[in-house]
Amino acid sequence: MRQLKFYIDRWMSSEAALAEHSVALDALAADVSGKTIALVGNARSLLQAKHGKRIDEADIVIRINSAPTSNPESHGCRTDWHALAIRNSRELKRRVTPKRVLWMSHKRRRLDWGTAAAEGFYLFPLKDFHSLSRELGARPSTGVLLVDLLRRLPADRIELFGFDFFASLSMTGSRTSAQVPHDFEAERIWVEHLMENDRRFNLVV
Known about the structure:
- By secondary structure, the protein is of the alpha/beta class.
- It has helices spanning 2-11, 15-19, 25-32, 52-56, 72-75, 90-95, 113-116, 126-136, 142-150, 184-197; strands spanning 36-40, 60-64, 81-84, 100-103, 122-123, 157-161, 201-203.
- It has a single domain, classed as Glycosyl transferase family 29 (sialyltransferase cstii, chain A).
- The protein has a seven-stranded parallel beta sheet.
- The longest helix has 14 residues, at 184-197.
- Its main location: membrane.
């Protein structure tokens, strides 16, 4: 019955009903309080680095969408939080087994019941998505949405890996910056401004 209600709520775009499946932001805050975080983006340039050990040494490792880990030397192996803006396919669920799943996309109809019903599931609020969209003047990428989320949480240190704002394109596709709905220059400026004002953040290159 709960599963049927979920799909009805999703079809009707009932944000309040969908949000009932989500833990509160306080649960995420309790997870990260005083801890170190490695947020791993999907830039191709990360393949040329050897940050895997440093990534896995973080208290919490967050990966995005297809969450590539085929090269442990560059990417590490662990995934504690899995942040999604793509459909959580059966293959992806088999390969990535996090402690917590976060749905970041405004496209709620891509969200499946198994993901929403998972223990610790978090639904990124639409109001925060639209607020950042207005600030950037474009749809935010999943990576910058996570940065926006993490700045609200009491982590001790937050390191960003695989973030080059599409300079080397993405490991997970062949599209160019002109073919995606994001403004990566605006995102770069936004993140740099955040790092100037919040010393917990560090962009690792």
